[in-house]
Amino acid sequence: MSSQIVTKEAILEALRVVEDPDVHRSIVEMEMVKTIEISDGNVFVEVNLTIPGCPLRTRIEREVQEALKEVPGVRDVKVAIGTMTDEERQRFAGKLRGKEEPSQTSPLLNPDTTTQFVAVASGKGGVGKSTVTANLAVALANLGYRVGVIDADIYGFSLPNIFGVSDVKPAIVENLIMPVQTHGIHLVSMHFFVPDNRPVIWRGPMLGKMLRNFFQEVHWADIDVMLLDLPPGTGDVALDVHQMLPKSKELIVTTPQENAADVAVRAGLMALQTNHEILGVIENMAFFQCGHCGERTYLFGSGGGERVAEELSTMLMGQIPVGTSMEGTQGLFATNSVQGEAFAILAQELAQTLSLKEVSVTH
User: Fold this and answer.
1) Which CATH number, 2.40.30.170, 3.40.50.300, 3.30.70.1280, 3.10.310.10, labels domain 110-353?
2) Any idea which fold 8-97 has?
């Protein structure tokens, strides 16, 4: 019986299912397949990545091997991982940008974008707004949505620490930044660009420029929901977001205390004055629930979330109990915890409110 002849075309076709994990585009489409050699069913493939020492190289190597072993006639597969030349990186970046030049408007900022923007705001610090943003993002990703998160708290960035990726640096290809991928979401934060955790000392216009760069110079691919973790209060960044993203909606985070509720109302009123829809209120640290008997203890009082929702003519969308974060993070909750379950319900509620299409969960 004659053996199946393996062709270069068959190899390329099989490799179309392998995607670069950073950009979610086929390695064939992105011209990352450099060399293909075939001899008696033995296949050698060289794949060039954008940067040396790419942390995702083993994943790509494994997926290439798995894809090629399904090709009829292939007996053995060897994969070599190389690095692109400067010219190849320029072509790679050009394909990501399409016909757009870096100075033109980001697709995310186009009026016809299908991405839903949700700004997460609070009147004051210390209410767990960033923790809410992070856990809500993960819960949405667990539902199968493509989620981006912008840490728009330029002075008080904390999301990388919450996710446990404070030591990670985003890949940069020809001045195009690849978001850090963690827990199923894509993340950009000022933290990644400030050496040694130095304080950011900028005036208002510079804040707006950096925020725009988070859209302009970052390759976000296709995003269903973009969460923006705003600084507390009603300052320059909040105004920039409202001007830059006129269709952005808003979630207000508060705690049960009266003073937190008072300031949260002011943050909500600013959103209403700039014609932004308030989707609802999230009451964080609403209560402590005993893991044995289920009894609730209201450590910080009660009623703050309901009061904020009433004064802003919106709904109390969720109440998050006090809890302990997962090991290796500083604020993420396990999906099977009381907090994780509360965020799962909140994510479903938000998806319905935003009229997001139902998606099949693949992870």
Assistant:
1) 3.40.50.300
2) GMP Synthetase; Chain A, domain 3 (3.30.300)
* C-beta separation of 73 from 16 below 8 A: no
Compute the distance between CA of residue 126 and CA of residue 1 in angstroms, rounded to an integer. Answer: 73
Give me the chain's average pLDDT, please.
84
- 148 forms beta bridges with 186, 226
Burial of residue 346 (CB within 10 Å: 0-12, 13-18, 19+) is: buried
Which of the listed ranges 53-62, 143-152, 292-301, 351-360 does the model predict with the highest average pLDDT? 143-152
CA–chain centroid gap for 187, Å, is 4
Structural contact between residues 221 and 213, judged by C-beta atoms closer than 8 angstroms: no
Exposure string for 200-233, b = 16+ CB within 10 A, e = fewer: eeeeeeebbebbeebbbebbbbebbbbbbbbbbb
Half-sphere exposure of residue 301: CA atoms within 13 angstroms, side-chain side: 13
29: buried, middle or exposed (CB in 10 Å: 19+, 13-18, 0-12)?
middle
Record the tokens describing residue 175, joined without a space: 């001045």
The sheet with strand 316-319 has its strands ordered as 180-182, 185-189, 147-151, 225-229, 116-121, 249-254, 278-283, 316-319
Dihedral pair phi/psi, residue 294, rounded to 5°: 80, 0
Cα distance between residue 147 and residue 150, in whole Å: 10
Question: 3-state DSSP call for residue 69?
Answer: coil
- Asked if residue 117 lies in contact with residue 259, where contact means CB atoms within 8 angstroms, the answer is no
Is residue 100 pLDDT above 50, yes or no?
Answer: no
The neighbouring-strand residues paired with 181 are 186
Domain coordinates in residue numbering, the chain = 8-97, 110-353
The whole model's pTM is what? 0.78
Distance between CA atoms of residues 334 and 135, nearest Å: 9
